[in-house]
Amino acid sequence: MQHHDMLPRDSAVRLIDADGVVTADPDYPLPDGETLLAAYRGLVEARRINDQASALVRQGRLAVYPSSHGQEACQVGAALAMAAHDWLFPTYRDAVAIIGRGVSPADAMVLLKGDWHSGYDVRAHRVAPQATPLATQLLHAVGFAHAAARRGDDTVVLALCGDGATSEGDFHEAMNFAAVFGVPVVFFVQNNGFAISVPLARQTAAPSLAHKAIGYGMPGQRVDGNDVAAVLAVLGEAVDRARAGGGPSLVEAHTYRMQAHTNADDDTRYRERAEVQAWVERDPLVRLRTHLRATGALDDAHEAEYAASADEIAAALRTALNTDADLDPEDLFRFVTATRSPQLDEQWQMLRGEIERSTADESVSSTSASTESGASR
Amino acid sequence: MTIAHDDVRSALGTDGAVSAAGQTQTQTQTMTMAGALNRALADAIAADPEVVVFGEDVGALGGVFRITDGLTARFGEDRCFDTPLAESGIVGTAVGMAMNGMRPVVEMQFDAFALPAFEQVVSHVAKMGNRTRGGIRMPLVIRIPFGGGIGGVEHHCDSSEAYYAHTPGLTVVSPSTPQDAYSLLRAAIDSPDPVVFLEPKKLYWSKGEVDTSVTAALGTARIAREGADVTLLAYGSAVPLALEAAEVAAGEGRSVQVIDVRSLSPFDDATVTAAVRATGRAVVIAEAPGYVSVASEIQARVFERCFEYLEAPVRKVTGFDTPFAPPKLEHWYLPDVDRVLDAIDTLHWEDES
Questions:
Q1: Which pick of A282, B258, B304, B334 has the fewest CB atoms within 10 Å?
Q2: B89 near A CB under 8 A
Q3: Is A243 a catalytic residue?
């Protein structure tokens, strides 16, 4: 690959603009109508997941929810760009992409609900646990892809991170290891403009985050992160290249975090409302809907079907989060290592004793004492 | 660095740690600890196609201590390879490989140079199994040369075991003999859980008999010398020191037991508790700074579990609570035989009839 082929374009690849108008691109063809319809359905469901989860935080059912409201085209595009046997390495803001890979909404929320640190079967869904420490998962993605390539299977790994994470040392080490070993990884940076309160200008002086790619010897490309058609086209090309043995690449999506970092954040302290309002005009759902309505691919029946599907997912989320899980305190000790150490067993026996005593105390003070005594496992 | 690499190379060569024919030999041989570690890596690579060794300078050079000498030549780049110079990258990619069925064995070049990988070790290596409710285990080994006594300049002689032993989810072991170096490293590579394998640099060139058919269980201490009057609890480079002190004390009429703790986490409370209850006296010896250390934890555990059996307070002999000493001052810093004997002398022997 020539050096200049590693450089991203001067502006982000965009196939459908904010008004729903298609611009033909010489390198990235518009995905077919069926794919775009599936993507639109994904966007409708994604927006609903974000808004439902945020509502559940306000109701006290989720400890916290880092919303991807406004970034749904990236979330849906990432999930759809992968083959069934590919692996996703997500962050805490990627619940929608995780659900897009087939994880149930209930299982995807376990971390944020607080029942455990991760709630889905990693191997069954080929989705790594959500990483909270920034950029650390990018190295896991590289190692995972290294193992896949060594074994000769054609798995591609899609590794997600945000703009803030590109300042971390592990971002650099992951890019470098991936390029040196030529492993099949696509790094997908959702540049949503802010790392909590700190804007991109304080993260980098580079022309774009995608420009970092050439420094590692891999191609970089930038894409309009609110245009799911462009995200699918650019990620699809990167995934195809990795699968064909062409090595890693970096894709930067320009998008915007429409809401505060989490419910615990107050974004009025660091950004103007006018700036947020300007991004409302670039909403990823609106432009695709406009386009699909104009082509006739999307009709009222579709819209009703997608809305119903989004309702179902939201209902599943509400049910899951309004149900208190049956938590087993012994789980604290059960998974630390494959075999429990004598020390951990001793500590569990201590906790079990405390629980049994408190259960017995409650039984004595309640009218149903005779049926409750020592009921703890 | 003033490390005598050639000594290691010649030791490996003369003792035939890597046999020319590539055949596994099971008879007992005299080896250096470096040779025993090399042999363990070679045997593990030969035994399991998913075992890979990687790190900085581990390929053509064979590692700065030559522990991986000859592995790339014998097994190929696929099984033993150099990486970019980035410790977090080494450990972080090992995590991903372990998620995908491999058994990585990574080398950190020196104890202090493992610190860039600390976040990966603490936040992911140690927690992945728990996070995934056992769905993803981390069968990987992080080999770290540790400790001083070799005349190394700053950053080459640290003892970081307390950081690792403090981290739930990590198995932390340190051998003090070539036999344990072989057997514990094989056990570490076979373990389904992540193991921090601390190699006492000072002992790399020590020699001993190694029987490759001998296995060692992680999580167990080893009684290195029987004795009836006092128990010395040591690990790593402090074990030969304890044995030397025991020998001197024997000349003075004291019967000194030495226990090689060898598993810093999980700790073998059963063996240590039984031993100290029998002798009634204990001294913990370690090179690391003593404050909030593995040594102070051992001291506390022994107090807690053996209090009614003790004839005297449990003492500890450790490094000072200073940064590790420069080469020309390290003989003042490091625990030595006299310091151990002085500690033994304080154990209320006047009460003995």
A1: B304
A2: yes
A3: no
Q: What is the CATH number of the domain that holds A193?
A: 3.40.50.970
Q: Tokens for B284, please give them.
A: 């913990």
Q: Are residues A209 and A259 located together in one domain of the fold?
A: yes
The answer to whether residues A266 and A350 belong to one domain is no
**In angstroms, rounded to a whole number, what is the distance separating the alpha carbons of residues A352 and A355?**
5
Tell me which chain B residues have a C-beta less than 8 angstroms from the C-beta of A118. Answer: 131-133
Q: Read off the pTM.
A: 0.93
Give me A63's structure tokens. Answer: 């400890």
Interface test with A, best of B88, B103, B218 (most A CBs within 10 A): B88
The interface residues of chain A toward chain B in range 303-342, judged by CB-CB distance below 8 A, are 331, 334-339, 341-342
CB contact under 8 A, A176 and B168: no
Residues A227, A340, single domain; the answer is no
Contact A336 B168 (CB under 8 A): yes
* Residue B257, Cβ density class (10 Å: 0-12 exposed, 13-18 middle, ≥19 buried): buried
What's the complex ipTM? 0.94
Same domain? For A203 and A68 the reply is yes
Q: Give yes or no for a contact between A254 and A57, defined as CB atoms under 8 angstroms apart.
A: no
Task: Give CA separation, A285 vs A33, A268, A290, A298, in Å.
Answer: 15, 25, 9, 13
The better pLDDT of the pair A62, A375 is held by A62
Residue B83 and residue B89 in contact, taking contact as beta carbons nearer than 8 Å: yes
**How far is Cα A12 from Cα A129, in angstroms, rounded to an integer?**
30
- Among candidates B199, B148, B155, B153, which has minimal Cα distance to B320? B148
| SS3 state of residue A32 | coil
Task: Show the domain range for A338.
Answer: 331-372
Could you say which of A41, A69, A101, A257 is catalytic?
A257
Strand-pairing partners, residue A190, are A162, A253
Rg of chain A over CA atoms, in angstroms?
23
Class of B5-210 in CATH: alpha beta
Show the tokens assigned to B53: 């060794």
Please indicate whether residue A257 is annotated as part of the active site: yes
| Cα→Cα distances B225→A95, B230, B239, B266, B341, Å | 57, 11, 10, 22, 16
Token pair belonging to A94 = 């990627």
Kindly report, residue by residue over A311-341, the tens digit of the pLDDT: 999 999 999 999 998 999 999 999 999 999 9
Chain A nearest C-alpha distance from B168 (Å)? 7
A255 within 8 A of A192, measured Cβ to Cβ: yes
Whether chain A has a CB inside 8 Å of the CB on B331: the answer is: no
Q: Does position B58 have pLDDT exceeding 70, yes or no?
A: yes
How many Å apart are CA B15 and CA B10, to the nearest integer?
A: 8
- Pairwise CA distance, residues B94 & A139, whole Å: 8
